[in-house]
Write a structure and sequence with these properties.
single chain, about 250 residues, mainly alpha, DNA polymerase, domain 1, hpI Integrase, Chain A, 3-stranded antiparallel sheet, 12 helices, about 5% strand
Length: about 250
Amino acid sequence: MNLLGNAFATRQNYLRGLRALMLHYKRLPEACTVDEIKCFLVHQRDKKQYSSSTVNLRVCALKYYFREVVGRLDLVVAIPNPRVSKFDVEILSIEEVLQLRRACRDMRQLLLVDLLYDAGLRVREVVRLRVSDFDKHHRTITIRNSKGNKTRVVQYGAGLRQSLRAYCKARGGVPKATLIESYKEKGQPLSKRGVQHIIRQIVKRSGIKKRISPHSLRHTYAVHYLNAGGSLQQLQQLLGHEHITTTLHYLK
């Protein structure tokens, strides 16, 4: 998978899925029957209460293993793909976004919220950002090697520009490498889990009762953009979607 250019997160998720099946039945995946695999997936969904996206990752992991590693095409065909509810993310109002900003404890947290919402970035894109990716003259951010190893350019407004300046001032200067460093490891980028933890804590302090994740802010950005009269085709480019059908879901 590494040679094929699959993302580190994808490799980890696939390994996690295979390990879960092996721990469940105490044997190798190819030693399981189709019915056992189906029961395992139902157990993951109903007993573990994993989301449809997580269950689908389990399916993708198993199919990759059976197809590429052990050559069991019969099992690949026999395992069903669950329907994924990808767009059941809760949307924030403008006032709720402001609540989140007020609940930030420092400029690093505020910058995180603004990058996710004002620029509509993915978590993996945020943690990879470097100062050199910003063009202050044109107010653009170059997102390099994102999903599908693609690079795109997005614009940012006065609000994010102000947060960037305040963040650099608060830390005593412009970062030399990664934009947002880890709280624990100086010089190292903040991890994706670190971002998720910070957003959870901000939401908790804000008093907002909705189920909010970093992706909720990106989703909210997209909906607000369209509600303000933005172009669907332009939004597709801003979000880095390969297919317009993915972007169409934001109209629902």
